[in-house]
Amino acid sequence: MNDMTPERNAASAAVWNRPAPPRPPALTPGRLPRGTRLLGPLLVVAIWEAASRLGILSPYTLAAPSTAAATGVQMIADGTLLPHLAASAGRAYAGLFLGVLTGVMLALAAGLTRTGEALLDGLVQVKRAVPTLALIPLVILWLGIGETMKIFLIFTAVLVPVYINTHAALRGIDMGHVELARTLRLTRGEFIRKVALPGALPGFFVSLRLAVTLCWTSLVVLELINTQTGIGYLMNRARDWGQTDIIVVGIFIYAALGLLSDAVVRLLEARALSWRRSIGT
Known about the structure:
The protein is mostly helical and 281 residues long. It has 12 helices and no strands. It has one domain (63-271): MetI-like fold (Orthogonal Bundle). The longest helix has 35 residues, at 188-222. Helix 6 (136-143) crosses helix 7 (147-171) and helix 9 packs antiparallel against helix 11. The model has no long low-confidence stretch (mean pLDDT 81). The chain has helices spanning 6-16, 39-53, 65-77, 81-112, 114-129, 136-143, 147-171, 175-183, 188-222, 231-241, 244-272, 274-280. The chain is globular. It is 75% helix and 0% strand.
């Protein structure tokens, strides 16, 4: 027998039929449209250009972006810029390739074997604590002041983030996948190829984005050390003559190459990890 009064029945029905409260807004923003990340840099360049045209910023202190752009076009036309750009790119990408390759190999050795971790992880952590630029005097004594020294220091700068992020990704592989591999009796090579490497890809791409930035930031300093070619050499020579427009050209080139390299890594990451989006849908 239902002992509830009609009034209580109506109140209960009102509670159950009450619309659900609105969901709180997400704490993380959605994916930005393409090109949106350039709004900040473009705004800074616009303010910079306006300050130069209004006379707030002296050309002897910092050349206007339009002046630097005209200088860059002139340097390309007279053949001054491209040989130095090729020299810088060769150094940066040679060190990047060697650092990524070695970092991945060390991460695999340390992440998949106890012996490798015991022997390698401590060494890389020591290198992590020592700034790459602090090694310059010692490496000059070892390798001289030529190309080998510059590529070696870029290599050491790149190796650390690649190792750390890839190693962390390997150590964080889901144990369920490991148990499944044991159940299927995968060989060591099959486990690495089908479980370890795919599982480490997200961490590897994070490290690769850091590496492409580090190879250029390291090069900026290294090309100021007794070199006759490269964007850094042009900037150093321009400093002696007070040519701020050429210095700004060099800054723009370093920024553009860094952004372009990061965009290429993003594209590779999106294609290599497209399976994650298909799982989420």
